[in-house]
Design goal:
The protein has about 180 residues and is an alpha+beta fold. The chain is built from four helices and seven strands. It folds into two domains: about 55 residues; about 80 residues, PH-domain like. Helix 1 packs antiparallel against helix 2. The longest helix has 29 residues. The radius of gyration is 21 Å and the shape is elongated.
Length: about 180
Amino acid sequence: MRSKNETSGQEGGADGGLRLRPPRNPVDSRAVRWWTGQAAVLVAPPVLVLVLLALLIPPARFWLLLPALVIAVPGAAYVAVMPRWRFRVHRWETTDDAVYAASGWIWQKWRVAPMSRIQTVDTVRGPLQQIFGLAGVTVTTASAAGAIKINGLDHVLAADLVERLTARTQDTPGDAT
């Protein structure tokens, strides 16, 4: 049984082969909160340390608050903008023939991997992903470009996707090289 987030069918180019095109399925909407949490964990600690030191060392207050401000202003913009922008870009899809993924936010990347080139399929769940009920799927291929990563999926959907992709690649002729 296919989930509502998976599309099946052959996508061919003019020569009947696979073609690079935007994948159709968005990641889970909880990914916005996950990416926001990741960004906050990156930005908040240096700002908090500088503010705490400014409170503890009054003669150096100006010189500690100035870099805190220099970090906090662009950091707040990053925390506010990046997760929503990424959500608009990140897409994924699987067909009987390939796995499609689009990712990034400044440097955007589209990837397609034919089933015959897939070597392994893994699920990844970091601590923040677990808190938000999310997971990532890593599709390792016989490509120098590296693995295809689909992050921000519901963890149950990700596990189901890994199971289906594994079964599909086992049924695909070829040695994935």
